[in-house]
Amino acid sequence: MSRVVRSILITGASSGIGTALAREYAAPGTHLALTGRNRERLEKVAGECRAKGAEVVTETVDVRNRERLAQWIYAIDDARPIDLAIANAGVTGGIGMGRRREHPDIARNVIATNLVGTINTLDPVVERMCMRGRGRIAVMGSIGALRGLPYCPAYCASKAGVHAYAESLRAALAREGIGVTIIAPGFVETPLNDGIVCPKPMMVSDIRAARIIRRGLERGRALIAFPRLAYYGLLLTRLLPRRLADAFFARMHVDIPEKFDSTAD
Questions:
Q1: How far apart are CA 2 and CA 179, in angstroms?
Q2: What stretches of 38-189 show up as alpha helix (H) in DSSP?
Q3: How remote is the C-alpha of 257 from its chain's centroid?
Q4: How open is the CA angle 147-160-243, to the nearest 5 degrees?
């Protein structure tokens, strides 16, 4: 078991898995630094966590805003050195009925939020953890990172980038005393997935997801992938002939709403 975590940073904490993780970790003696885009929801989550005995600070900051995000993280770390940082903030996008390609603005927002936003989060955290020689960072990837799916190209690309970035950091930071974990969930019951019409095999609740993630982080896992069957099933499709795999995924009925105001929670 790793040492007890006392100070935790979670981005995208005002919704979905981020909210569930904040509630999961909330306890006396724990300091939570939560950020999200929706002030009302964020403060509601913070109130619930304080009621469970946690000390909580919040900020509504866009993870795409590198300078402002870094300033806030430095201030948090100055007050209470961060033991665990979970770069969770993310958005989705894709193709729906009557649309043959993603809107270019939405595609760029997905990349900027999911991939660049993760890098923006980790930069100041890693700097401080390297100075102390300890800590753990976790990135929110996806089983969608395992292969390009025809109905969400930007999302798959962003999560594949997150996985590759974290894998690159892992070896380099191990000698600095910092652990790196990739979280790769399948479908989880969250607002992010509510509007998507498609098969959602083995979908788990956000509460269940948070417990799986916490358990994996406490064990120092490099990869937390769930549900395992969905993860390995998608991984195995990479062994199929390309034409067969492409035809299989192309036949699936998927409708992802086009949201121009899609922002990270």
A1: 10
A2: 39-51, 66-79, 104-111, 117-132, 153-174
A3: 20
A4: 15
Domains (range + CATH), the chain: 7-250 (3.40.50.720)
Among 18, 10, 63, CA closest to 34: 10
Among residues 25, 74, 151, 155, the one annotated as catalytic is: 155
HSE at residue 222, side-chain half, CA atoms within 13 A, is: 10
* Residue 36 identity (one-letter amino acid): G
Residue 174: the pLDDT is 95
- Contact of 205 with 185, CB cutoff 8 Å: no
The distance between the two most distant Cα atoms of the chain, rounded to a whole number of Å, is 55
Q: Vertex 205, ends 203 and 208: CA angle to 5°?
A: 110
Helix (H, G, I), strand (E, B) or coil at 214: helix
Helix, strand or coil, per DSSP, at residue 244: helix
H-run or E-run covering 100:
none
Measured between alpha carbons, how far apart are the two ends of the chain, in Å?
31
- Cβ atoms 204, 227 nearer than 8 A: yes
CB under 8 A, 24+ apart: contacts of 96-104: 96/254, 96/255, 96/256, 96/257, 96/258, 97/255, 99/258, 102/152, 102/153, 102/154, 103/258, 103/260
Cα(225)–Cα(27) distance, rounded to whole angstroms? 26
Identify whether 155 is a catalytic site residue.
Answer: yes
* pTM across the whole model: 0.89
Q: Of the candidates 147, 148, 152, which has an alpha carbon nearest to the alpha carbon of residue 95?
A: 152
Instruction: Express each pLDDT in 170-216 by its tens digit.
Output: 999 999 999 999 999 987 886 666 566 555 567 789 999 999 999 99
